[in-house]
Amino acid sequence: MSKLKRLGILFAVLLFAVGLVSSCTPGSAAPQVSPLTESEVRAFADPIAENFLYAISTGSYIDYTRDFTPTLKSNHSEDYFKDINPRRLEAVGAYVSKEFWMMSYKNERINVAYRAKFVKEPADVIVSVYFKNISGKWYVDGIQYDSLLMRQYDC
């Protein structure tokens, strides 16, 4: 094999190795949210969660989606809300209260979990709210509800 071919193969291997190593370094991962204290997170998260949980009881789509990202709002259309919200109310009843449970960070989002009380659900409804910062304002970028009654009603 000629010296020039060997040099070309060595260069290609080195280029591949550098690319492989740099793709695994922390600097190339998705940006992380700067850690906020629990009280800083709760200052924006608690009122937003209170608003959309209360909107379940009132049936107000506008209030329910007020703090959603554009993507989440398009995934939770008014027709979707009108379909699922009555099932939620039938399953667990009206919203009563919530209690902060825990929070965590994942990439550019903050997950805040609450233990919520609803009139008909004897156990807690676990509400996980995913927040994303867009231009300095925090928006809801995802919501998950979990309770035995909600699972039974598929809502």
Structure write-up:
The protein starts with a helix and ends with a helix. Strand 2 and strand 3 form a beta hairpin. It is α+β, with helices and mostly antiparallel strands and 155 residues long. The chain has a 4-stranded antiparallel beta sheet with strand order 1-2-3-4. The N terminus is likely disordered. The chain has 6 helices and 4 strands. The longest helix is centred in the first third of the chain and has 21 residues. The protein has one domain: NTF2-like, domain 1 (Nuclear Transport Factor 2, Chain: A).
Topology:
Elements: H1 3-23, H2 38-58, H3 61-64, H4 70-75, H5 78-92, E1 95-106, E2 109-118, E3 125-134, E4 137-146, H6 148-152
Antiparallel strand pairs: 1-2, 2-3, 3-4
Highest CATH level, the class: Alpha Beta
Number of extended strands: 4
Our measurement of the CA-to-CA distance between the termini, rounded to an integer number of angstroms, reads 67 Å
Report the mean per-residue pLDDT as an integer. Answer: 85
Give the proportion of residues in helices.
40-55%
Secondary-structure element order, as H and E? HHHHHEEEEH
- In what order do the strands lie side by side in the largest sheet? 1-2-3-4
Q: What is the name of the CATH architecture?
A: Roll
Strand content: 25-35%
Question: What oligomerization state is this entry in?
Answer: single chain
Return the structural class: alpha+beta
CATH superfamily: NTF2-like, domain 1
CATH topology: Nuclear Transport Factor 2, Chain: A
Specify the biggest β-sheet. 4 strands, antiparallel
Estimated radius of gyration: 23 Å
| Parts with pLDDT < 50 across at least 5 consecutive residues | 3-30
Shape verdict: globular
Into how many domains do the coordinates divide?
1
**Tally of helical runs:** 6
